[in-house]
Amino acid sequence: MSAASSSPPVPAAEWSATVSDESSGLLLKLTGTADLRVTEQVEKLLEDVHRRASSSGASEVRVDLRELEFMNSSCFKSFVTWISRVQQLPGESQYKIRFISSSSVLWQRRSLHALSCFAADLISIESMKN
Question: Which residues contact 92 (CB under 8 A, 6 or more apart)?
C-alpha cells in the first residue's frame, strides 16, 4: 500500500473524516460530532474503508478518535456493523481494528470497551492523552 494515497475529507455539519494509506493498512481519522445528521455518511465511509482494507489485503485499520467529541448511538451502530463484516471474512482475510482514543473523553472509554468485548480478537484500543 502506498503511504502517499489519501482520500479527501468527508465533511458534514461539524464532522469530518479522512482515510489514508499506511504501510500496514489504513488510517481513518474522525473529528467533530458524529450525530444523527451524519449517520448515512458514517455508514458509507465504513463500507468504503472495509472495501479498501479487504481488497488491499490490509492487516490493520487504525481509527483515530482523539478529535471526535461525540458519537451518537446510530453512528456507533455503524461501527458494530463494520466489525461484523470483518468477522464474516475468512480468517486469513480478516484485518485488525485499532482504535486510538483520548484518555480524557469518557464516552470513548465506555463505548470502545463495549466494542472490544464484541470482537476481542479483532479490536485493540490505544488510549492517549491529548
Answer: none
CB atoms within 10 A of CB 12: 19
Q: Three-state secondary structure along the chain?
A: CCCCCECCCCCECCEEEEEEECCCEEEEEEEEEECHHHHHHHHHHHHHHHHHHHHHCCCEEEEEEEEEEEECHHHHHHHHHHHHHHHHCCHHHCCEEEEEEECCCHHHHHHHHHHHHHCCCCEEEEEECC
- List residues bridging with 30 in a β-sheet: 17
Cell of 36: 444523527
Looking up cell 468485548 gives 117
17-61 pLDDT, tens digit each: 999 999 999 999 999 999 999 999 999 999 999 999 999 999 999
pLDDT band at 11 (very low <50, low <70, confident <90, very high): very low
